[in-house]
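Example record used in the benchmark description.
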Amino acid sequence: MSVGVLCAVQGSAESIIVQAVEGSGGRLSVTRRCADLTELLAAAEAGLGRIAVVSVGLDLLDRESVDVLHRAGVTVVGVADPGRPWLTERLQAFGVDLLAESPRDEEGAGELVQGALAALDAGTAPARPVPAAGTRQPEATPGVPAVDGSVVAVWGPTGAPGRTTVAVNVAAELAATGGSALLVDADTYGGCVAQVVGLLDEAPGLAAAARAAGQGALDLHTLARLAPVLSPGLRVLSGVSRADRWPELPASSLDAVWPLARSLARWTVVDCGFCLESDEAITFDTRAPQRNGATLSALEAADVVVVVGGADPVGIQRLVRGLGELTDLGLGLNRVVVVNRVRSSAAGARPGEAVARALARYAGVTDAHLVPDDRAALDAALLEAR
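Model output (structure tokens):
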């Protein structure tokens, strides 16, 4: 049975490629010649083909479109234009599985077809584009030294257990140790990192980085420009200022941001939203972005997940359930549990012991870090943006 090919190639190269596909000895067959990106995505999601051949100059093509094709199980072959190398670089940044020059004759088209077959046989189409393919080489960026950093995601269940407070102070302490830290606000429900540290929350920050990544234009220098220096060794990438702006942070674009963040700072500390719902039940047949895509992307990319819970009875219950939810989703396998605002008024005469016993009994956690409540110091720091 032949493999279906979706062809969305512009110019004279289309007919050459179609002829080469039909002459592949029955292994490949063109099932749809798509006039635009909308038709290509519709055909891919309808299961009409397993290989998509796309031009570098296809209108509206971006990283999210390639991500949609990958999630439909389609191997993406990009047809580059030697006369427009800047577009070729952008196409590679979108995360295509194979990049080939636009064929000028049957021989060149045959090589493209053989490459597509090899890519399909190797099973190179991932569930999501490989992040490394969506970034430019950090060493090629002048003026910004590249490092090999780690990502720390700070997550916690609903109820304001202190995720932002912990994220801000963890990033500040890591920067104070002599390394470099990048503090990222990826909370799409109530992000407030910029306000907590005394920056304008209208700064473009993470949303601008995601837009650049979606267009294949994000590099290390651009990311450094979008993340101002707050203090020696500490940069801040502010989040969206309103909850209704969450579509500006698609997971497919953020997947390309995290590798560059690793190159920009030794530690990338990401303040995540509380919700882990993946929305498959309501978006399986559409191209709609996921409401919690930013949080899920950060948790999947994280080397360490700091799980923050409150020290009151409700907070402990939510923390236990949240830990179970993370485990069920296969997220945060390397985690650090933090119980915030430990105080006798909410947990009894010996709050630390009570919290430790509850976590050991109901969650199997015996190494939780307990942070005592110090409301006066926290209020003073918030008032002065420290």
